[in-house]
Specification:
By secondary structure, this protein is mostly beta strands. Helix content is about 0%, strand content about 45%.
């Protein structure tokens, strides 16, 4: 009964900001690295950001580095993606992803996916 529920998506103008939240339940959240992926229409799914189980270490795709910040609050079982300076090409469905318990954030195996939340950047 693992559940990952993303919220916070919506319509925003270029240069604007959004914060996505992923509420997790049904597992030991603090034991798992977490990741954000995105997929735009007609494009392949791509890894956006990763965070270690403790939140100490983060990693970003080149195309979002300096604009997006991944963070987590283990007391709230929630992972976040703060998105600033949004561009048209950031339009996509953003999904929260659970790593396996005890695995590093760089392990490419993914245990569970959320349903995704739509982010649309448009003028």
């Amino acid at each position: 009964q693992v559940q990952l529920v993303e919220t916070g998506g919506g319509l925003v103008q270029p240069g604007g900001s959004l914060r996505l939240s992923c509420a997790a339940s049904g597992f030991a959240f603090s034991n798992c690295a977490m990741k954000w992926y995105r997929q735009a229409p007609g494009k392949e799914r791509e890894l956006v950001a990763r965070i270690s189980n403790s939140g100490t270490v983060t990693s970003y795709a080149t195309f979002v580095k300096g604009r997006f910040t991944i963070s987590r609050d283990n007391a709230k079982n929630t992972v976040y993606l703060q998105m600033n300076s949004l561009k048209l090409e950031d339009t996509a469905v953003y999904s929260c992803v659970k790593g396996y318990s005890g695995a590093t954030m760089y392990d490419e195996r993914n245990d569970y996916w959320g349903q995704g939340t739509q982010v649309t950047v448009s003028s």
